Amino acid sequence: DGLAHTYPSRVTLEDWGRTHENRTLRSITITNGYGRRDKKVIFIDAAFHAREWLTPAAALYAIDQLVVGFELNKELLQDYDWIVLPLVNPDGYTFSRTIDPRWRKNRSPNRLGCHGTDLNRNFAVGWGGASTSKNPCSHEKYCGRAAFSEPESRAVRQIMHHLMATERGILYISIHSHGSWILYPWSYAKIAAKNTQEHAEIAQAGVAAVVNAPFDSSTKYKAKASHELYPAGGTSTDYAYSIGFPLAYTLELPGRRGNATFNFHPPRHLISELVQETWIGLRAMAEKTIEKC
Ligand code: 0X9
Ligand code: ZN
């Protein structure tokens, strides 16, 4: 809200519905304030999973760099607009921050008195397949009563369809943690995407930029197809790719720095350099995409 107020020519906010606990799902669209209205779009989201605390911070830092740091990054906004949904799962995030730090799902009530759907199993490609559970009490993988049963996954779908209706969506990056991976389709089955080579090349640009980032022990990401890690059905990246985003990635941020392992919950003193490093990777992937597309 503050950025939209301070930079009204370059920032707009949009609401895409409300969660079970009535929190607004709000995206920010960042432009350079002039030029065409039908530019291609880079779509970034974060915090599908409640406990992945570094991810909304990384999304907010990217927003800051594009808006407040506009002068440094304006080439990224020359032919592309960016849309960022920094907190896909605000109910789960709040629950994780206040009650159970290990919580992963959203907080919608289910049968059997259990709560939560794994939002990254709630999309329509391979729904209910690999690495999913139909048990509403499964803490990790409950895929929901149907694909898109949840307001959060519907909001992400709505943004994707909004962008693809005019074929503007080019690059989708969903920020997760942890594992230091850059993953690309397909996720639901052991099938290579048609443009695996292009996915790999853009991912490698991210890997190289982060390794060379000016920090002690910056992250060595590894890039590969999602299914090579483990096949998973119902993910947002597969859905984005299936509806026409030519490039779709899951970015698994690191869970350690040097010898210090923090998994989902980075210590306060590391957050700043971790989000800076993440931005260096995102920017490199965006630059490579812009160069190629
Ligand atoms: O399982 C997930 O939803 C993602 N990993 S996380 O640890 N953040 O939960 C990965 C989704 C896509 N990747 C794979 N199919 N491996
Ligand atoms: Zn995750």
From TrEMBL:
Any GO CC annotation of this UniProt entry: extracellular space
GO terms for biological process, alphabetical: proteolysis
Coiled-coil regions, chain positions: none
Needed cofactors: Zn(2+)
Peptidase M14 domain ranges (all copies): 1-289
Keywords: Carboxypeptidase, Hydrolase, Metal-binding, Metalloprotease, Protease, Signal, Zinc
GO molecular function, one term: zinc ion binding
UniProt-annotated catalytic positions: 252
Family the UniProt entry places it in: Belongs to the peptidase M14 family.
Descriptive protein name: Carboxypeptidase B-like
Organismal lineage: Eukaryota, Metazoa, Ecdysozoa, Arthropoda, Hexapoda
Shown chain mapped onto the complete sequence: 45 to 337 of 350
